[in-house]
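Thread: Modeling a multi-component assembly for a lab meeting

Hi all, long-time lurker, first post. My supervisor asked me to bring a structural picture of a complex we are working on to next week's group meeting, and I have zero experience with this. I have the sequence lines for every component (456 residues in total). Could someone generate the structure of the whole assembly? Inputs are pasted exactly as I received them:
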Amino acid sequence: MAEMSPDVKKALDEQKKNCPFCKMIQGEIPVKETYKDSKVYAILDINPLYTGHTLLMPIEHFPILPYMGKDLFSHAFKIVQEMCFALKTALLMTGTTVFIANGASAGQQSPHFMIHIIPREAGDKVDCFGLESSKSDQQAHDDAYRILSHNMPILMFNHFNESPASWHKNKPVKSKKAFSKGEVISIIEKNPPLKKIIEEQPEVLVSELSKNKQLMELFLAVDVNDIILHFNKKWVRKEIVISKIDPNDQFNNVEKMFR
Amino acid sequence: MLVRCFACDILAGTEKANVVYEDEMTLAFMAHRPLAPGHIIIIPKQHHEKIEDVPSDMIAHYFSVASAAGAALFEGVSATGTNIIANEGHSSNAVFPHFAIHVIPRKDDDGLKLNWKPQKPAEQGKLESTQKKIKEETFMIGKRKREAAPEPVNLDEIKREFIPSKISKRSGNISRGDREAEKEFDNHMIKQLKRSS
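Re: Modeling a multi-component assembly
Sure thing. I ran the full set together rather than chain by chain. Output:
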């Protein structure tokens, strides 16, 4: 949740005076209200996309989602859940779409933050929420994956520091990529050139370990000496150091970034 | 799960996905057929089909993961806006039958048509009748606990017990005593006919 700087707060105060939705909440403009409590307010849209199109908004004036406080955030989304259930039972529809637009390029048409809840059923002719597409830039998507897999755990780490949850343990979940000893042995046996190297020239393996990323991932969670001894009985135990990519520690590279 | 669910397959490991964030209750991964580069899908690790099946203390967590994904997209893909969309229930646009939240980055000239044109204003009478119907339901928000959805029943494991109950004549399974009484009545009628003819 972002904090507002004083400039932003000043701009917001000016926006509030002209905001039609703040006026609706205070009762200056007539609206069809469906739910009200101390923090949120729900009305029917005057230009609905389908019967029952609801707008749920917080009574305080925010432009976009990141500026909401924690308590208001959790309360608002509990009410979203209840509202979906109420819409479905009242209008006998089988599904709903919850739609949030942050920013004008996303289609936000009002300065006041609101959540659209639209009841849906299979076979209605509402086409604009199709969320799959076959034409898009796969390369840019993969680049985005690399960046996001780095940034998202950091953001969630900060989130849990501010609002800890009882079910969340501090360490991230173990990734599935670490192979057990039996799996490593079976992988080596399926790979005849690799097996040959271990049986005849195990020193080559040791020197390649620090350079080849795939070998590093293979031998992460196992003792390299044990594996070599399994194939080559003449191997003498040595101290082997692999550069540490611990699957349990996603923040290994983050500390280096911020030094 | 009874119906094949792509999201449950990803959680089980039979389908591949580029996972962006994982913790004990959620999984966030990149979409397989993205609307825009950076399209993220967030799913709970338990299979819920409708939004009201999700436990109410976890729903805020899933949306806060979505909000964090939106913040990461602002910097990562240099997006100028984000859309957070959840199609739930048996609706025409749900990608899989598993509650999922989509976060889509937007720029000014990307050509996506997620907006709808404002329709004609609705008639006042229709708005009022919908308002009344919805208010009857929202009146109960906060005042009652919704019942949890019943767990699916495995019909193969149920032991059936046959309890003979009163069976009506209409169903065709007539009891013995009634059948004999009918026969006597028929015989009586036949005797009457024979006497008369």
